[in-house]
Amino acid sequence: MDEKDTNKKKSKSFWLFLAWAVATFATAGSLYMSEVMHFTPCSLCWFQRIFMYPLSIVLGIAFVKEDTAIVKYTLPLAIIGGGFSIYHTIIQKIPPDSTIAACGPTSCQEDYLNWFGFITIPMLALLAFIIIVIALLRLRKLDGAN
Questions:
Q1: Which of 24, 28, 101, 142 has the highest count of CB atoms within 10 angstroms of its CB?
Q2: What distances in angstroms separate CA 40 from CA 17, 68, 106, 129, one per listed residue?
Q3: What is the pTM assigned to this prediction?
Q4: Contact 19/59 with Cβ under 8 angstroms?
Q5: pLDDT digits (tens, 9 = 90+) for 58-91
Q6: Sign of the dihedral defined by the CA atoms of residues 29, 35, 40, 42, in that order
């Protein structure tokens, strides 16, 4: 294996590891917030979790096996999950007296976390999905897939 192939393999490994690490950190963070801090997730939070949790497992297996073919299966999960995060972030910015955000026992406008006056849980989930999508797109480009 020449130096170019070695660098390409290292680059693939890096992007796959990054995607897995972000998904795992996001999964652990959401579990910590609900199980330790006792923040009750709203319906939209559950949808975001539905798309994030499998990523931590599947990307971990793919990283160990060095299987970049997983991109075609995980990229749709990350994109759809990111869509829910975008919608949830928008819902949180609607005036609090709006009934549009009444999406279950816990309001989707509930703001348990508000760092620096604007960073919320859905925004953190969106950031995680964006990083995962970027990493997966880089992997796809390195593999030369369409």
A1: 101
A2: 30, 35, 7, 21
A3: 0.85
A4: yes
A5: 999 999 999 999 999 999 999 999 999 998 888 8
A6: positive
Domains and CATH numbers, the chain: 3-143 (1.20.1550)
CA dihedral of residues 34, 128, 144, 66 (deg, nearest 10): -50
Amino acid making up residue 108: C
Degrees to nearest 5, angle at CA 123 with 121 and 126: 115
At residue 119, φ and ψ (nearest 5 deg) are -85, 115
From residue 55, give the alpha-carbon distance in Å to each of 8, 76, 114, 124, 136: 23, 11, 26, 16, 11
Token pair of 39 as six digits: 């923040």
Nearest Cα neighbor of 16 from 140, 129, 146, 145 is 140
Has residue 115 got a pLDDT over 70? no
Radius of gyration, alpha carbons of the chain: 17
Alpha helices in 1-146 (DSSP H): 3-31, 43-65, 71-93, 121-143
Give CA–CA dist 19/129, Å, rounded: 9
Residue closest to 33 by CA, chosen among 133, 111, 118? 111
